[in-house]
Q: What sequence folds into this?
């Protein structure tokens, strides 16, 4: 690695970390204003998120869907598209997985799991691919269309889950028929964490290789950098845009499958938990780099996981962790303005 | 619905449209101001929830709901200002900041609003527009949220101001061509920041209309995403304040149709009716966009036009 690349990499790590520290100071002042000791709060957040095997398990389980929904933003971003509809792809992917899992109940568990994953990915890919196609062929802005598609997806989901696909036995919380204990996703070998995390990490690594190490990925980044130049160079812009959106949607759909097959065992309103929106912020903090998504998602998952600990020990509302996340996101997003501005990261002329 | 039978459905939809459209109206007017200046604020959802909480808490503390409305607007103004200032920094993406603000606003509202879930704040009075009628249903249905009337007046005033006042023209110029605005000597980031803060003020007031008017109260499940929908609504209204009013009525009516049909025993398709406005908005976008032409009426500097 030459010195220039090293400085750039150091900047990419140091700026978000510095911003995070700044956000922690701000949040610490907020907490101090409410007569709590900030150091005690942070110690508890650490304990709730990373101090024990149990807290790690909680953290990683929360990070798993976020990794996948962040990919739904980061992949289209390579082609210059800003997709914010991961929530819709997740919800419909989860529904598809629940339906497939129930229909195939009793078959070989591995086969059922593969079918659920493929079905969920196909539905998610089609949903976000639709936003990409509208963008490419009709010039409809993908940010807005994917947001609208999310609302439509949630309406379709609620309609089906409370209507035709409802399990008559689910009284208080309308759900689809359960996929059955046998088809539930197992744990990663040696860890107490379900396979969703494994899917996320594998997906991120594969996408890193695709984007950074193949000609297809290079072409994709050309499209994102300058669409006109890509067209003049004869690149298949439409196909690349659709592929990026489709892969992103497949990731979000897989997140839905993971939530159904590893956590809830059925599709219900618990799927609409805002993972899609969390993924957007994670992708931005990871600066749309697939490999950076994993640590960022683990950090965010850890902060969420510590909410219960803060509530029990300090009697703080469970929204405390939302405030911390909100402050951190705002400061880190604002720190984007500092790239290339700090002297120590600039190569000596 | 015994007294008036099937007529209860259109009446319930009308009443529901008026009742449910008030928050839509304010957030869409706020988003309209922001987008006219060339920025998009997806954080109005957070501002709406924050406004609902602050309005309710202040009304409970002071006993005067109107003070609550003003405080809600003030909280919205502060959050809008935050969005505006952060987005004025170079290379900061307004859409991502909006999503961050959504999280921050909801988080702060849930955090600070915890003690106000139980107590009962004083509510805004209702305007008895149905006093002429003998039927109690009609009278109940036409008891209108005063903020609805204020919102209508505001929509008319904004439509006029965008066309006829210096401020309106500057805002539109900044939104349509920042180069032209710079050439005229206006500071583009400052205008946009003010526009975003004013948009936040209106969204905050919209939040208070959720919590301070019957059957309002402050709960964490108060908003059903009206703040995010504002973006769709403004596109639907093609960036025209008066059309924002009609669009808000339509979106409110669509939300009211489901419960109204349920009350007479039709329960299927409830959610699909709720989604109808989004399908229509998407349809309009598909029909009017082409790879060479963007939406008619859209401010030229808006990032969603590119």
A:
């Amino acid at each position: 690695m030459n010195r220039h690349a090293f400085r750039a990499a150091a900047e990419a790590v140091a700026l978000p970390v510095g911003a995070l520290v700044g956000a922690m100071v701000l949040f610490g002042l907020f907490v101090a204003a409410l007569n709590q000791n900030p150091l005690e709060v942070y110690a508890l957040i650490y304990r709730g998120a990373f101090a024990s095997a149990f807290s790690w398990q909680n953290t990683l389980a929360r990070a798993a869907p976020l990794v996948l929904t962040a990919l739904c933003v980061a992949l289209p971003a390579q082609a210059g598209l800003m997709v914010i509809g991961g929530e819709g792809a997740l919800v419909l992917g989860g529904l598809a997985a629940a339906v497939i899992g129930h229909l195939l109940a009793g078959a070989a568990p591995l086969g059922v799991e593969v079918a659920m994953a493929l079905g969920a990915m196909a539905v998610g890919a089609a949903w976000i691919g639709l936003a990409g196609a509208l963008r490419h062929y009709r010039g409809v802005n993908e940010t807005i269309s994917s947001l609208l598609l999310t609302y439509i997806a949630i309406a379709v989901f609620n309609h089906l889950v409370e209507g035709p696909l409802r399990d008559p036995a689910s009284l208080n919380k309308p759900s689809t028929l359960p996929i059955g204990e046998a088809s539930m996703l197992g744990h990663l070998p040696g860890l107490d964490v379900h396979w969703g995390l494994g899917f996320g990490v594998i997906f991120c690594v594969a996408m890193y290789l695709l984007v950074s190490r193949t000609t297809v990925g290079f072409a994709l980044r050309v499209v994102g950098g300058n669409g006109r130049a890509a067209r003049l160079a004869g690149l298949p812009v439409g196909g690349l845009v659709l592929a990026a959106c489709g892969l992103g949607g497949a990731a979000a759909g897989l997140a839905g499958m993971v939530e159904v097959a590893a956590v809830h065992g059925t599709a219900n309103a618990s799927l609409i938990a805002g993972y899609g929106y969390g993924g957007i912020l994670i992708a931005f903090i990871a600066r749309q780099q697939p490999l950076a998504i994993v640590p960022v998602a683990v950090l965010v998952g850890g902060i969420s996981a510590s909410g219960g600990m803060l509530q029990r020990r300090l009697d703080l509302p469970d929204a405390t962790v939302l405030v911390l996340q909100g402050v951190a996101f705002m400061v880190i997003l604002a720190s984007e303005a500092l790239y290339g501005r700090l002297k120590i990261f600039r190569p000596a002329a | 619905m015994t007294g008036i039978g099937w007529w209860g459905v259109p009446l319930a939809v009308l009443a529901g449209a008026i009742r449910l459209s008030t928050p839509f109206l304010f957030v869409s007017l706020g988003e309209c101001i922001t987008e006219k200046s060339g920025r998009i604020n997806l954080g109005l959802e957070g501002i709406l929830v924050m406004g609902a909480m602050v309005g309710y808490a202040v009304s409970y503390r002071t006993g005067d709901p109107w003070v609550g409305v003003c405080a809600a607007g003030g909280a919205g103004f502060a959050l809008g200002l935050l969005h505006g200032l952060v987005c004025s920094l170079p290379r900061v993406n307004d859409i991502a900041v909006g999503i961050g603000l959504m999280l921050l606003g909801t988080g702060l509202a849930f955090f600070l609003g915890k003690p106000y879930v139980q107590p009962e704040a004083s509510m805004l009075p209702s305007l008895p527009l149905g006093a002429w009628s003998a039927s109690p249903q009609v009278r109940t249905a036409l008891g209108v949220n005063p903020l609805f009337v204020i919102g209508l007046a505001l929509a008319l005033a904004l439509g006029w101001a965008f066309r006829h006042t210096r401020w309106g023209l500057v805002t539109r110029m900044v939104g349509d061509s920042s180069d032209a605005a710079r050439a005229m000597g206006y500071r583009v980031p400052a205008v946009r920041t003010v526009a975003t803060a004013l948009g936040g003020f209106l969204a905050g007031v919209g939040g208070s209309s959720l919590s301070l008017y019957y059957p309002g109260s402050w709960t964490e499940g108060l908003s059903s995403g009206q703040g995010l929908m504002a973006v769709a609504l403004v596109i639907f209204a093609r960036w025209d304040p008066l059309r924002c009013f009609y669009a808000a009525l339509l979106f409110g009516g669509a939300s009211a149709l489901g419960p109204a049909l349920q009350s007479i025993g039709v329960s299927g398709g409830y959610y699909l009716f709720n989604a109808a406005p989004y399908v229509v908005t998407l349809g309009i976008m598909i029909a009017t966009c082409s790879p060479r032409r963007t939406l008619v009426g859209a401010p030229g500097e808006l990032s969603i036009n590119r």
The radius of gyration of chain A is 21 Å. Chain A has a mean pLDDT of 90.
